[in-house]
Design a protein that fits this description.
4-stranded antiparallel β-sheet, mainly beta, single chain, 5-stranded mixed β-sheet
Length: 522
């Protein structure tokens, strides 16, 4: 890891540190273990490991030397009493503690546990007991950091206490940080429940808790819960502050396990439809595999028993030949576990071909009037060895009939679809249809004729009722002569009274007449 830069305020201290390291070098060997009775180390009462290559930023005050040491994988603050030969570890944290300085019974250093460099100030009661103190005006005593009040040099220090935690401090309070967690061997995403087990001596209470979970997470709760997203070993630190300002801390390693690779299993199974397929029928296979454990299916491998295969979850497959085929499904889970299943699928031969027929209808007319009978004749061409078993007629107006021939009259005008269904002896049907149009007859026409005369000229008029037209104008002049046309002339040869008759003929054959008297005088 990158070693932090020395703050500017400690440039002078750095010079002192160089001198202090030299003092350590003269007081003890550069490496190895110091033992009682060695020269230059009077009063040594326990072994001391010296790691000169890991020391940094030393400072000295009287018989005490403070320095940063990297022996535990992070920078911690240590104190060495070169009179007694004892070494004391003042911090034990996974975060860096750097640039210590000592004056009187006060030790200050930079702390990076919050991610920023904060100044920590401790007061010593003996070499191994340290308590947080308040700052005050500088009394100008030589060797004191700015803003710190040093105790009088004549004030005796209390007797040092032994044990893993601080000794008695202001208000006779001390604490020993400790905690437990459950489960002891958590997996990723498991909630780890941390329980504060700190013990407090003296009439004090805990003011705050500061947890560092070792992966960047933190909490200020007394008993937090926390889940790790990745496996690994995490140094969990707990810093406890009492109401009097006294602090204690501890650190434990929590190991988070990856999910076990053998906790998943599967039981392969599948179904198919139709259950009894024929050749060239599409058989739809459906995966019915069940999985135990926190795993997912990663792959499917189908073998259809005829050389065909698929990697789909639910494939469709058609067999070209009849037979019984061993179909196998191999399933692979995301953790590598596998399972398989095999079933026999029987494909049937095609059934024998049925008979077939083609029906047709003949009729005596395409158009009829209401109540006019229409005659129908059915026929059918039959393939293979089958006979016609039944003829069924539907005349389209609700009436039905049977037999090869049929006759039917419709009551109302309209267009009717006639259907013939022919059934063969093997049950095979065929059918034919035809349309019949029924129209009402037209109403008969009538007319009223009239004659207009002028001299020897005659003009005929007619009033026609119905959808008809005039086809003929026939004149009888009463003297044995006749004429035609709507307008005619006639000259009589002798005087007399003559009856002129006009007969009008319509296109439906209807006729009407008109008569007029002609008086001839010479």
């Amino acid at each position: 890891m990158r070693k932090p830069r020395v703050p500017v305020t400690y440039l002078v201290v750095f010079i002192v540190a160089v001198i202090s390291i030299a003092v350590i070098a003269t007081a003890a060997p550069q490496s190895g273990t110091l033992t009682s009775g060695e020269p230059g180390v009077p009063g040594l009462t326990r072994a001391l490991e010296v790691f000169p290559n890991n020391l940094s930023h030393a400072d000295i005050s009287g018989h005490r030397i403070v320095y940063s040491d990297y022996r535990n994988g992070s920078w911690d603050i240590f104190l060495f009493n070169h009179t007694s030969g004892r070494e004391y570890q003042l911090t034990n944290d996974s975060y860096d503690q750097m640039n210590p300085t000592i004056s009187c019974d006060l030790v200050a250093w930079y702390d990076n546990s919050t991610g920023a460099w904060d100044l920590v100030l401790l007061k010593l009661y003996g070499d191994s007991a340290a308590y947080g103190v308040c700052t005050g005006p500088d009394q100008g005593r030589i060797g004191c950091p700015a803003g710190v009040v040093c105790p009088p040099t004549s004030t005796p220090a209390p007797t040092p206490t032994s044990g893993p935690g601080p000794g008695p401090g202001p208000g006779n309070c001390s604490c020993m940080a400790n905690f437990t967690w459950s489960p002891q061997s958590p997996g990723i995403n498991d909630t780890v429940n941390f329980t504060d087990r700190t013990t407090v001596s003296g009439n004090c209470s805990i003011r705050s808790w500061a947890w560092n979970f070792g992966d960047g997470g933190s909490s200020t709760e007394q008993n937090p819960g926390y889940a790790y997203a990745q496996p690994g070993t995490y140094p969990v630190g707990l810093n406890v502050t009492l109401g009097s300002g006294i602090m204690c801390n501890t650190s434990r390693n929590v190991t988070v396990s990856p999910p076990p690779s053998d906790n998943c299993s599967c039981t392969a199974d599948f179904t198919w439809s139709p259950q009894s397929p024929g050749i060239n029928d599409t058989v739809n296979f459906t995966d019915m595999t069940t999985v135990s454990g926190d795993c997912a299916i990663q792959a499917w491998a189908w073998d259809f028993g005829d050389g065909g295969s698929s990697t789909e979850q639910n494939p469709g497959y058609a067999y070209a030949q009849p037979g019984t085929y061993p179909v196998t499904l191999d399933v692979t889970l995301s953790d590598g576990a596998a399972c398989n299943a095999s079933r026999d699928v029987t494909v049937s031969s095609p059934p024998p071909e049925n008979c077939s027929c083609t029906a047709s209808i003949a009729k005596d007319r395409d158009q009829a009037e209401p109540d006019q009978a229409v005659a129908f004749t059915g026929s059918a061409e039959v393939s293979r060895d089958c006979a016609i078993q039944a003829w069924a007629w539907d005349f389209g107006d609700g009436a039905t009939g049977d037999g090869e021939t049929a006759s039917h009259a419709y009551a109302a005008a309209g267009t009717y679809t006639v259907t013939l269904v022919v059934t063969l002896s093997d049950g095979t049907p065929c059918q034919a249809t035809t349309d019949v149009t029924v129209v009402a007859p037209p109403e008969p026409c009538s007319c009223s004729a009239s004659i207009t005369t002028s001299g020897n000229s005659f003009h005929g008029d007619v009033d026609v009722q119905g959808d008809c037209s005039v086809t003929d104008w026939a004149w009888d002049f009463g003297d044995g002569t006749t004429g035609s046309g709507q307008d005619v002339t006639h000259d009589y040869t002798s005087e007399g009274t003559y009856t002129v008759t006009l007969t009008v003929t319509l296109d439906d054959g209807s006729t009407c007449q008109a008569t007029s008297q002609a008086f001839v005088v010479f």
